Amino acid sequence: MEQRLSRQAASEAVGDDGWRLVLGALCSSVPVGSLAEGVEVASRAVAACGDHADGHLRIDVRPGQVVLTVQSRALGAVTDLDAELARTITAAGLKTEPGLDPAAPRTVQLLEIAVDALDIPAVRPFWQAVLAYADEPGAAADGPLVDPLGQGPAIWFQQMDQPRPQRNRLHFDISVPHDEAPHRIEAAVAAGGRILSDARAPSFWVLADPEGNEACVTTWQGRDK
């Protein structure tokens, strides 16, 4: 029987093996020199996971890198089995890394889009239909929507207490490795942005571009009860 891991436990279980907990999943990447090499890396990762691959492993193969994501599809969470699978993939000889090297294009990350709504039950079905999305496994009835193919960003809904026509009603949540967040925020500020709030750090920081459009840089930290 799989056991869900707390965020702290999941991060600690695989951090030394080049994996990072990002938005409820274990993520890593393997640098490759060609698409053919990437396919070989993907095959080795699948073989390492064995019969569990279909239920836990997602792979994005590109000419320069292979991005690996491990999460229980049935639970929508990281379990003790997921941590074991991640370690097994690394032990198979793959150079798993989170992309923290400054020379890397960027770290592993996952994107969420937040929709501010006064009436979430009224708004949510529209987004589910227009995007052909599905309920997130294990989430509440008004919880996030996810791409069933795992290609697009998750959509979640933030409860508004009153109309706010003067501000944007959408914002991006960029979930990054916890040790990447300070660098990402520094880069955003250097590029003309500003920090609107760090009251909930290190769970998330609210940033804005020069015209006030908002984005949150988020991590797993500070979220376990």
From TrEMBL:
Domain Glyoxalase-like per the UniProt entry, residue ranges: 113-218
Membrane-crossing residue ranges in chain numbering: none
SUPFAM superfamilies assigned to the protein according to its UniProt record, in alphabetical order: Glyoxalase/Bleomycin resistance protein/Dihydroxybiphenyl dioxygenase
GO molecular function, one term: 4-alpha-hydroxytetrahydrobiopterin dehydratase activity
Pfam families cross-referenced by the UniProt entry: Glyoxalase_6, Pterin_4a
InterPro entries: Glyas_Bleomycin-R_OHBP_Dase (IPR029068), Glyoxalase_6 (IPR041581), Pterin_deHydtase (IPR001533)
Assigned keywords, A-Z: Lyase
EC number: 4.2.1.96
The name this protein goes by in its record: 4a-hydroxytetrahydrobiopterin dehydratase
Organism encoding this protein: Paractinoplanes pyxinae
